[in-house]
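Appendix B, example 12.
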Amino acid sequence: MSNERNYDTERLPDTNSSNLAENLDRRNFLKTAVVGSAAVAMTLAGTVGSAGAAENLHARVPAKDLPVDENIGDLEAVASFNQQVVGVAVSASGRVFVSFPRNGIDTVKISVAEVINGSRPGNGEGFVKAVAYPNEEINTLDTTAPSTHFLSAQSVYVDSSDTLWVLDVGNLGSGTALISGGAKLVAIDLTTNAVKRTIVFPDSLITKGTSINDVRFDLARGAAGFAYITDSSAAAGSGIIVVDLATGNAVRRLANDPTVLPDPAFRATVEGKPFVIQATANAAPSLVSVANDGIAVSADGKLVYYCPIASRNLYSVDAAVLTDFTQSDAAVAATIKNLGDKGEVGGLEADAQGRVYLTNGEFNAIRRFDPSQGTADTFNPTFETVVHNRHLVWPDSLALGKDGTLYITSSQVSRLPVFNAGQDLRQPPYLLYKVQTDATPGTR
């Protein structure tokens, strides 16, 4: 498209696939199977202790005989980026889109991009490039026209009609002031590659402290379908924002309900350290208080799944009551079910087989919840691990393709300065991964 800019030459993202493969190999981002060779397993395991300690250990024990943390799932790198990638979406035909929200630290040159495979002219080598989508203009920051330009594109999602939706937070970074008219849902026609609808949220809904985070859709409910959006800020009361797509009317549901708020008893360990908020070295650490974050819709559309990051529980609520704006929040809350211990989870995705996929930053993993396997046992077999790999550094968002490919962004959120006494411990590149599953996406 003539209005697209190829960021290949700017290294934002790194777009040459031969370079990508070289970089991944150099950084040990290798495609790994559950049972690989001892050499591959050792490469992924890294060194043990200091360099000297590792050399001494290897001198005493052959590498092939050293125990390592087993990987689960055949994880494969798709693309690397020099800026922090968060959202991912995949179309019916397999087109892949990613989003780069503003975090208040990094310079974001593009907010939404399509990840494209092709051949490099002249030598025929394959390459991967990220192109501003749907065009450069909407990706150009313009706070004077917030409803027609991306400010901070937190989430992207392709609905069952093959429309790409972009959820814009409406500010310029975590904790920064909301810009009136900037918080919005943008629908993009994947046939014409043009914006076909924008739903701007009113200031009465997106108030100080609001941090809209993720979105899912059910086009089979109501006259034109509904969108479900999580608010991850406890300061705004959190909750689920429900959007009637027929009218554009949006209502906050379950505000301040205990199930959408941080659990004061929540403690987590990520990369071997307590996961706490500590903005500077001199600041006293405090508990992470990220509220309702992940969301998904069951295969039959009857349930909406959700969960705070700062909570161990996965919840569901009845979609029929949730979308009936004549019902009180008390009536909605009466349909909530606690579905068990999910671990530390941010992103959710559902499949047509009735299962829900969950990211897990504590264990560098993707887990899967199967409600059909529920029991009353203390050990709950309804949660299984689909992927476990040490290179999934804070898996964030998920997108399921029609061929069963599950795409995963590794965003390194836990390495941000706010969680590390003011030190930015992130290490570019930021990776988009994929793993093959036996699933197909929902059809709602």
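The domain at 81-436 is CATH 2.120.10.30 (Neuraminidase). The longest helix spans residues 17-26.
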